[in-house]
Specification:
With 566 residues, this protein is mainly beta. It is 5% helix and 56% strand.
């Protein structure tokens, strides 16, 4: 059987090889190897026991295998480092806090017996609580007989900024000592022994203001109380208490508010006594939108005391921004009652006579308008015109008996005033700054011949230049046009027992007071962190001018000294 299979197989290979030889080129015959394989038994694979798998698991085998590890596993969060990490800035050492110098003392001496002493102290840089005190003494002695003048001021103040409101208070004392040294050049012997005058002023003030809230429907308020006492060496006394309140409710772009104040006071002299009280109510509505601010309301004023009158005035203001930060146009129409007091009149002219008549002035109608804005970095400007009608405007006039003392008269009727005001500020850098102000006024008196001691032109300017970190210079100039004064040639007539003088051109002479230019310069030198030196010159042109008739100011004076900061 096996032999037959072998024969058949051999014949099959020969036939196949023969047919191939016919289709191809004749090649030499290949050697054929034949081998007989003897199969003893069929192949049966055998697997070892270790490689056998059970078809069903053995559920009874509960032995647990626990691997032994020689390392510890750490529980860490997987971090994805595929993103580009940000560079971490190197932390610098804490900057040393700047050492603030809040206090200083200053002293100086100079020509004309000049003596200056000044000091200021403050508790520190706490933004929520501020308190401090200020003191100043300044005195000079001119070349004329008893041309001595000195002023002192002592103020203590405090402020607390809370979460809802800011509280502030101030206690102030001022003293002004002088002599009635006025001299008539035509009769220099008329005042051989000038009288002395001392003006004392005590003031106490407290204020509460709520903090600003950006809520479009916020409610805001403010309250202020001011009380003062004033007296002089000739037994003139004055007390005044002023209470002011303010309420405002925002409703989107609108504001509804009420401003109210009351002034309660009396003035008393040897032969006069006046109770002069005012009550003001100013309800208003305000529109404040982008570039537009308009306020419309009325000003209700009630006078009571020695006289009683009720008055209503308009109170309208408008502000339009045409070019943001560069050009704004504004206007105002208002009226008010101006309360004249001994304090306000002596602040303007300290050489007042006794028994001054106190009377309110009525600002019947005041119209003003102008432009303001910035012309670029370091440049600011403002220009305003105004027109006023004032009833009973106070004016100063020399007393007929005591030529070196001034009475207060009132221009009976409605005085008209037209004015132009301009301000400019130029700051080239932190080391160079200049400011200037101009006032041009045209008075049309109601019954008087002139508006006495009211110049038509006034100019003031200040200049600051830092030469380097240690040396700086400053300069200021005041220019004033001619003004007029009235001199009686006979004793004027008084009205109805009151010390109100009726104008009578037949016994009056109008005198011209020449204008002047007052130039002052100064310099400061910083010696070190604590000490600095200063020098100042006033009336550099040595002009013998007079602001009030018969009262010539001091000539040139130079003084200097040291200041210490701590």
């Amino acid at each position: 059987m096996r032999l037959n299979k072998t024969i058949y197989t051999t014949l099959f290979f020969f036939a196949a090889g023969f047919s191939t030889l016919k289709a191809q080129d004749v090649k030499p015959p290949e050697k054929t190897v034949s081998e007989e394989i003897e199969v003893i038994r069929p192949y049966k694979p055998v697997l070892a026991e270790a490689f056998k798998l059970r078809r069903s698991p053995d559920l009874d085998n509960l032995k647990i295998y626990r691997a032994k590890f020689n390392y510890a596993l750490l529980d860490r969060k997987l971090e994805l480092n595929s993103d580009i990490q940000k560079l971490q800035a190197q932390q610098l050492a804490d900057e040393r806090a700047a050492e603030l110098i809040n206090n200083y003392v200053k002293g100086g001496v100079g020509s004309l017996g000049t003596l200056l002493a000044e000091g200021y102290v403050n508790i520190g840089k706490d933004e929520a609580l501020q308190a401090g005190a200020f003191f100043r003494h300044f005195g000079q002695q001119g070349k004329l007989n008893k041309q001595n003048e000195n002023t002192q001021q002592l103020s203590v103040f405090g402020r607390s900024i809370g979460d809802k409101a800011t509280l502030s208070g101030r206690l102030n004392y001022e003293r002004h000592g002088l002599f009635f040294y006025g001299i008539d050049e035509a009769n220099p012997t008329l005042n051989p022994n000038p009288e002395r005058q001392v003006l004392n002023y005590f003031e106490l003030e407290g204020e509460a203001v709520n903090k600003y809230n950006s809520d479009e429907n916020a409610f805001s308020y403010a309250a202020k109380v001011n009380a003062y006492m004033f007296n002089n060496k000739f037994d003139a006394k004055e007390q005044t208490v002023t209470i002011t309140g303010y309420l405002n409710k925002r409703i989107n772009s609108f504001n509804l508010g009420l401003a109210a104040s009351t002034e309660l006071g009396s003035s008393k002299d040897l032969n006069t006594k006046v109770t002069n009280n005012l009550l003001r109510l100013n309800p208003y509505i305000k529109l404040q939108a982008k570039g537009v601010k308009i306020t419309a309301g009325i000003n209700f004023v009630q006078e009571f005391g020695t006289t009683s009158t009720t008055r209503f005035f308009p109170a309208v203001t408008a502000d339009f921004t045409l070019i943001p930060e560069f050009l704004q146009v504004f206007g105002e129409v208002k009226g008010d009652v101006n309360r004249n007091t001994l304090k306000s009149l002596t602040d303007e002219n300290p050489f007042l006579n006794s028994n001054i008549e106190i009377k309110n002035s009525i600002e019947k109608l005041s119209i003003s308008g102008g432009v303001k804005g910035n012309g670029g970095p370091g440049f600011g400007y403002k220009a305003r015109f105004y027109s006023k009608k004032i009833i009973d405007m106070p004016l100063f006039v020399n007393n007929f008996t005591n030529f070196n003392k001034f009475d207060v008269i009132y221009d009976f009727g409605s005085m008209k005033l037209l004015g132009l005001e301009g301000e400019i500020s130029v700051q080239v850098s932190d080391d160079l700054k200049w400011t200037g102000k101009l006032n041009i006024e045209d008075y049309k008196p109601a019954s008087e011949q002139e508006s006495y001691f009211k110049p038509q032109l006034r100019v003031s300017s200040n200049f600051l230049f830092n030469f380097n970190k240690k040396l700086s210079f400053n300069a200021n100039v005041a220019i004033q046009d001619d003004s007029k004064a009235k001199v009686y040639t006979a004793n004027p007539i008084q009205t109805g027992g009151k010390y109100l003088l009726i104008p009578d051109p037949s016994i009056e002479n109008v005198v011209n007071l020449k204008g002047f230019v007052d130039l002052g310069i100064g310099a400061d030198y910083k010696i070190n962190k604590q000490f600095s030196a200063f020098v100042k010159t006033t009336n550099l042109l040595n002009t013998n001018y007079s602001k009030y008739l018969y009262y010539r100011v001091n000539g040139i004076s130079v003084y200097g000294g040291l200041s210490y900061s701590f």
